Amino acid sequence: MAPSWNTRILQSYIHQTYGISMSRESIRKLLHRLCLSWTRPTYKLVKGDTNSQVAFQKELEFII
User: Fold this and answer.
1) Residues 6+ apart with CB under 8 A from 39
2) What is the DSSP letter of 40?
3) Distance between CA 57 and CA 48 in Å, rounded?
4) Secondary structure of 41-62 in the HEC alphabet?
5) DSSP state letter for 43
6) pTM of the prediction?
7) CA-based Rg of the chain, rounded to a whole angstrom?
8) What is the pLDDT of residues 1-46, one digit of tens each?
9) Among candidates 46, 39, 56, which has minimal Cα distance to 5?
10) How confident is the model at residue 58 (pLDDT cuts 50, 70, 90)?
């Protein structure tokens, strides 16, 4: 997996994983509708809250 994702990588991932072809613009609009945005990684959250991370991973698995 790439350390950071863009619409080109997402497009490839969606196609390989789900067999669905989407344009990069459609992916961008979908992410916007879901109130998701991208940022460049700036630092690693070493002191992150483990419980919050586990809860987020479960929620993400539910979405995917």
Assistant:
1) none
2) -
3) 13
4) CCCCCCCCCHHHHHHHHHHHHH
5) -
6) 0.55
7) 14
8) 556 788 899 999 999 999 999 999 999 999 999 988 776 666 666 6
9) 39
10) confident
